[in-house]
Design a protein that fits this description.
The complex is a heterodimer of chains A (249) and B (592).
Chain A lengths: L1 H18 L5 H16 L3 H13 L5 H14 L2 H14 L4 H13 L11 H5 L8 H24 L4 H27 L1 E5 L3 E5 L8 E6 L3 E8 L2 E5 L5 E5 L3 E2 L1
Antiparallel strand pairs in A: 1-4, 1-7, 2-3, 4-5, 5-6
Chain B lengths: L1 H19 L11 E6 L3 E3 L4 E8 L15 E15 L2 E14 L3 E5 L3 E4 L2 E4 L3 E6 L12 E7 L3 E3 L4 E9 L2 E8 L7 E5 L4 E7 L2 E14 L3 E5 L3 E9 L10 H4 L3 E9 L3 E6 L14 E9 L3 E3 L4 E11 L15 E5 L3 E7 L2 E14 L3 E5 L3 E6 L4 E6 L3 E6 L8 H11 L28 H30 L1 H26 L4 H20 L8 H10 L5 H16 L4 H21 L1
Parallel strand pairs in B: 2-9, 11-20, 22-30
Antiparallel strand pairs in B: 1-3, 3-5, 4-5, 6-9, 7-8, 10-12, 12-16, 13-18, 14-16, 15-16, 17-20, 18-19, 21-23, 23-26, 24-26, 25-26, 27-30, 28-29
Helix pairs in contact in B: 4-5, 5-6, 5-9, 6-8, 6-9, 7-8, 8-9
The chains are: A alpha+beta (249), B alpha+beta (592).
Chain lengths: 249, 592
């Protein structure tokens, strides 16, 4: 009787957490339909505005970013297009259309800079590149549940030791994958040039030496920021500072 | 004693160091630097020997000579000496130089500077007079002389000239060192083989001649003087012979004396003419006399066969620079050009060359064809006119292929032609997504969600593990099983007794026995004892040992039950006893 009461309480908490998620989806779905219709009518500026307003309201969806990037491509704005494709890739990393369109957008830029190659950790945990953070978390939650169930079963059936150990390894891997994903998202923060051209300076001053020039849509890695300046890196040798308002991150 | 022998060793080592180390040789000895020459009057054919002698040390960097633009200076090595005179030790080092005069006149060899022990020492200046060679020796009776010739003193730009240098010497000559001062901006130079050596009699005197020829190609038009060529050599003079009867001469040979000489040729002048106007089309600065020939491997062949077209250009001049493009046969032939082969030969002191071009031809269509002429426009300096060397047209008969299936080349082309080629006409982006189910808002997860998601399986596991553990204990731990079920069993039996008591069917004696048994069994289960066999006193002792506070009350109740068993009373007392028993068991359950 005591146990059943405890379990009921637990279920109540769980259901409270899950059912307390906002369910105002229909509101913004209508807005998405409107933005898509505007796109179909080739009213790209209004369409982009509608997508942007959704993003500004806090909606985070890979397909939304993808549609917005497509709209910018149609408007001839390669910089915002590349930036939104990069944002979309964070949420829908396995989408083939996205990869193709991103490549197309990069080809439209003057500098034609490809996204940087994944680091050593990403190469080692290669599957983490194909999942977004939420998917990795769900995977870890699922594995966590299965593992503890297997642990309980093992108390009854000691022969399940191998399954228990295997599940434990998978669980650890899933946790490491989340770690790698988080580290990559913090270390390899990509930036895109949003203005026609920007001079990359040797220091955080307008009169500093211009090291090189980047053009709209150029992809760089943002390595540091200081007040209104961002430190950007093109490769191991080329890096410098650019005004923050010339870049999108 | 050991210390003393150590000191002696140190002193000996120091002495050896001072004696053997050249650095130490300057200690206690003044340093002086002097310059000497072997002669101060000489001719252009002579060489001056300059020696810089440094007394007092041998450890100095080489002297710094003053600028000597009228001499060519060559180092002739160093020599050092160490002398002991009356226990006085003196050291010196001599730097030798060989100065070859380039002009006549009076020249001053400026002071040479030597740095030693942190000081700079200078030599005294030396005045030298350089004269032309004396004319008392004519060309007919000179011991050695040089002659240079040019094949022509007038040439066109790019025309091949032959420059010949000859050194005549009547006595042995060694250590020949020739320098030919050509201006690289005016001439391209190529060697014409190895130097020749032969004998020649001039005015009845036999000379040994060494001859070197060079091909010169003028690069610029204009009047130009080829400066003197200079050769340095050692002439070996034999001094007075020992008597022929002297037996030692058989062993020691003749005595000789080496005379170092510098021989100069007369400068040569040449007029380089520009190429005349009217160069034919395709002229690419090919100058000389050339022949051209074309040869085909076979004139009758089938489609897919291979034949080789060999184009040979030979002649005198810059053959190396000749090149031909692929013949204009595309569409009819597949053409595979080979790397041209070039062979250079020297004939009559002139550079001759042959360049062979090969083209592998694979006919693609049947029919009669004619290979076009190959033309080589060039300038002939001998005739002072432009000419065009041509090959005759070559007829070719191509039959259809008899065995088509073996013609891999043709087959492969057909296969390629059949392969569908998709022409990319444009590029565009993939369309937008419109499926609304894709647009679910991806929210970032709260800490509570993550905590519950990851923590709940752990809690469930802990609960499960506890339950499993309890069940296992109930299964295998008898004491635990009895203790857990004691109250339940006792309670059930007490309820039955209560029902009997209410119905009035139970006798007081039986009632007392039954109640006593229930109590003792309950206590036995609780304490894992054989409850039925223990007495009231034992129950009190065991309960006290187990820290039950109601041990005494329990004993008294058990005694009353026993009293009822053996001295039955009224029904009211049984009801009271039953209630007390139920309360006691509840009390004991709380205390357990």
């Amino acid at each position: 009787m005591k146990y059943s009461n405890g379990f009921s309480l637990f279920l109540f908490f769980v259901l409270t957490i899950f059912t307390s998620l906002p369910t105002d989806a229909s509101e913004y779905l209508k807005e998405i339909v409107r933005a898509n219709d505007l796109y179909s009518e080739k009213r790209y500026a209004q369409s982009a505005q509608a997508y942007e307003s959704l993003i500004n309201k806090g909606v985070r969806n890979g397909y939304l970013y993808y549609n917005l990037a497509n709209t910018y491509i149609r408007m001839g704005k390669t910089g915002p297009a590349v930036l939104n494709y990069i944002h979309a890739r964070k949420w829908i990393p396995r989408d083939e259309n996205l990869e193709a369109n991103l490549k197309f957008a990069i080809q439209q830029t003057q500098d034609k800079i490809e996204p940087p190659a994944p680091g050593t950790l990403s190469t080692l945990f290669f599957w983490s590149n194909d999942f977004n953070l939420n998917e990795l978390i769900y995977l870890a939650i699922g594995l966590n549940f299965v593992f503890w169930v297997s642990l309980a079963l093992w108390l009854y059936f000691p022969s399940l030791k191998i399954i228990r150990n295997a599940l434990f390894c998978f669980l650890l891997l899933s946790f490491f994958s989340i770690g790698v994903k988080l580290k990559n998202e913090s270390d390899f923060k990509l930036g895109v040039v949003l203005v026609k051209s920007v001079e990359v300076k040797s220091g955080r001053a307008e009169d500093a030496v211009t090291l090189f020039q980047l053009h709209e849509g150029a992809l760089v890695t943002v390595t540091d920021k200081y007040e209104n300046w961002l430190e950007v890196r093109l490769n191991d040798e080329q890096k410098g500072w650019v005004p923050k308002n010339s870049m999108g991150t | 004693m050991k210390m003393f022998s150590g000191k002696i060793k140190k002193i000996v080592c120091l002495f050896l160091f001072l004696a053997l180390n050249p650095v130490s040789q300057s200690f206690g000895q003044d340093i002086s630097v002097t310059a000497t020459v072997d002669k101060n009057r000489l001719t252009l054919e002579d060489v001056l020997q300059l020696s810089i002698i440094i007394q007092g040390t041998q450890n100095t960097p080489p002297p710094e000579l003053s600028s000597l633009p009228d001499f060519r200076v060559v180092s002739a090595g160093t020599s050092s000496s160490t002398q002991y005179i009356n226990t006085q030790r003196s050291v010196s080092i001599t730097y030798n130089y060989r100065l070859t005069p380039m002009n006549t006149g009076t020249f001053v060899i400026g002071p040479a500077r030597v740095r030693a022990n942190g000081k700079t020492y200078s030599t005294q200046p030396i005045t030298i007079a350089v004269q032309k060679p004396s004319n008392r020796e004519t060309a007919g009776n000179r011991t050695a002389f040089v002659v240079t010739t040019l094949s022509s003193n007038k040439a066109y730009v790019g025309e091949q000239l032959v420059y010949t240098f000859r050194v005549f010497h009547r006595i042995d000559a060694k250590n020949l060192n020739l320098s030919l001062p050509f201006d690289k901006t005016r001439f391209h130079k190529e060697e014409l083989g190895e130097p020749k050596s032969y004998n020649k009699i001039i005015n009845g005197l036999q000379y040994h001649v060494q001859e070197l020829s060079l091909a010169l190609f003028p690069l610029k038009k204009g009047q130009y003087e080829i400066p003197s060529s200079i050769i340095e050599l050692d002439l070996i003079h034999s001094t007075q012979n020992r008597s022929s009867r002297d037996p030692f001469s058989q062993f020691f040979g003749r005595r000789t004396r080496a005379e170092h000489k510098v021989l100069r040729s007369q400068p040569l002048s040449i007029e380089v003419l520009p190429l005349p106007d009217g160069a034919p089309e395709g002229f690419e600065n090919i100058i000389g006399q050339f022949n051209i020939s074309a040869e085909l491997g076979k004139n009758d062949l089938e489609v897919g066969d291979t034949t080789t077209l060999t184009l040979t250009v030979s002649g005198k001049g810059n053959v190396r620079d000749i090149s031909f493009e692929e013949p204009a046969l595309k569409g009819y032939f597949k053409i595979y050009p080979d790397k041209p082969e070039f062979h250079q030969t020297i004939r009559n002191n002139e550079i001759m060359g042959e360049k062979v071009f090969k083209f592998a031809l694979v006919p693609l269509e049947a029919g009669s064809r004619t290979l076009p002429k190959f033309s080589l426009p060039f300038f002939d300096p001998g005739k002072a006119q432009y000419r065009v060397a041509q090959t005759p047209p070559i007829p070719l008969n191509i039959k259809p292929s008899a065995t088509k299936e073996k013609l891999n080349l043709v087959q492969s082309r057909q296969q390629d032609a059949q392969a569908p080629e998709i022409e990319i006409l444009g590029r565009d982006i993939f369309p937008i997504y419109t499926e609304l189910d894709k647009f679910q808002n991806a929210r970032s997860h709260s800490s509570a969600f993550l905590g519950i998601s990851f923590g709940s399986p752990v809690i469930l596991f802990i609960l499960s593990a506890f339950i499993i553990k309890q069940q296992k204990r109930m299964k295998y731990d008898v004491a635990f099983y009895r203790r857990r079920n004691a109250y339940k069993n006792a309670n059930q039996r007490l309820k039955k007794m209560s029902a009997l008591e209410h119905s009035g069917l139970s006798a007081p004696k039986e009632f007392g026995r039954e109640l006593s048994e229930i109590l003792r069994e309950y206590i036995g289960n609780k304490l894992n004892l054989q409850g039925k066999a223990i007495t009231a006193e034992e129950v009190e002792i065991r309960l006290k040992e187990a820290d039950y506070e109601s041990a005494e009350v329990t004993r008294k109740l058990l005694e009353r039950c026993e009293t009822l068993q053996f001295a039955p009373t009224t029904r009211g007392s049984t009801k009271e006893l039953l209630g007390e028993s139920e309360n006691l068991i509840k009390l004991l359950e709380k205390q357990s």
